[in-house]
Design brief:
With about 120 residues, the protein is mostly helical. About 70% of the residues lie in helices and about 0% in strands. Helix 1 runs antiparallel to helix 2, helix 1 runs parallel beside helix 3 and helix 4 packs antiparallel against helix 5. The chain starts with a helix and ends with a helix. About 10% of the residues are buried.
């Protein structure tokens, strides 16, 4: 959600996925902080840096991308998030490696360049 949300925010200006992730991270940090201490709050620094860099890079390249490419990247990102939900729902039955599918975000760019 961090990578897809940052891309979606930078490309289309829709920050709803990042907001959802921030709420989830906040709840998880409260649980971790209750057992591990306040040092858990330091985890926000690298998270802010890499999500911010992805968002900035995506916002710089968005004027050079067509609307169709941006929509296709967001569609693939939403599919990957759906697969994460399937993994969480059917944890003992099925496990799909979503990290291996992150390169699918490049497919729309290559498709629109060569078509």
């Amino acid at each position: 959600m961090a990578i897809i949300g940052a891309l979606q925010d930078g490309l289309s200006g829709d920050y709803s996925l990042l907001l959802t992730k921030a709420i989830l991270d906040g709840v998880i940090c409260m649980v971790f902080a209750s057992t591990m201490g306040a040092g858990v709050l330091l985890a926000v620094l690298p998270l802010f840096i890499y999500q911010g860099l992805i968002t900035l890079c995506a916002s710089f390249i968005s004027p050079y991308l067509a609307t169709a490419i941006i929509n296709d990247i967001c569609y693939i990102g939403n599919i990957l998030i759906t697969i994460i939900g399937i993994n969480l729902t059917f944890n003992n039955i099925i496990h799909i490696r979503v990290g291996n599918m992150l390169l699918a975000l490049i497919v729309p760019v290559v498709y629109h360049i060569f078509s």
